[in-house]
Amino acid sequence: MKERTLSIVKPDGVEKGVIGDVLARFEGAGMRVAAIKMVHLSAEQAGGFYLVHKDRPFYGELVEYMSSGPVVVVVLVGDNAISAVREVMGATDPGKAAPGTIRADLADSIERNIVHGSDSPESAAYEIPYFFREIEIQE
Ligand code: CMP
Q1: Which of 13, 73, 126, 136 could be bridged to 132 by S-S, CB 3.0 to 4.6 A?
Q2: Displacement of CA 134 from its chain's centroid (Å)
Q3: What is the C-alpha separation between 62 and 67, in angstroms, rounded?
Q4: Which amino acid residue places its CA nearest to atom 1 of ligand 1?
Q5: Beta strands in the chain (DSSP E)
């Protein structure tokens, strides 16, 4: 089933110079880039994006980190895009991520884990319009 998902190359991914590497891995898994932009989120914008985590103990640090530098926001389209992208990313904690995944290969910690991907259709439905208007998505 053709699906959309939202991915973010986080500040550590941009700083490490692996934007191209991350996108190539998604494209190699059959995903197509349908929208892309670079933004530097304010703390308020990062907080709104991660609102679902607002009661978690790591929320404050997550918001601070995600607003610490520019990120690349991407809409990916493909067969079962949500699960396909999550497979290529690997587990949230790079120490638990399968070998060959983005996080196992490139990430330093559970917070500085290089990349975000929507975890469900409901998340994707919130996250994609958070950054893109329909006219900006080339499907
Ligand atoms: P992400 O997929 O972007 O979704 C929420 C983020 O919170 C997650 O990746 C991690 O980078 C970050 N995070 C920090 N600490 C934790 C934690 N203990 N459990 C889950 N996510 C965490």
Answers
A1: 136
A2: 19
A3: 9
A4: 116
A5: 2-9, 32-39, 71-79, 115-117
- Only one residue has tokens 């308020």, namely 44
Residue 37's nearest CA partner among 52, 21, 23 is 23
Place of tokens 């975890």: 119
pTM over 0.70: yes
Full DSSP string of 7-42: EEE-HHHHHHT-HHHHHHHHHHTT-EEEEEEEE---
Query: Which structure tokens are listed for 62?
Result: 């997550």
- pLDDT tens per residue across span 36-89: 999 999 999 999 999 999 999 999 999 999 999 999 999 999 999 999 999 999
Q: Is the CB of 92 under 6 A from ligand 1?
A: yes
Nearest atom in ligand 1 to the alpha carbon of residue 111 is 11
The residues, ordered by sequence, that sit 6+ positions from 25 with a Cβ below 8 Å of its Cβ are: 88, 102
Residue 86 is encoded by which pair of tokens?
């999550």
Tokens matching residue 36: 């892309």
Looking at residue 138, its amino acid is Q
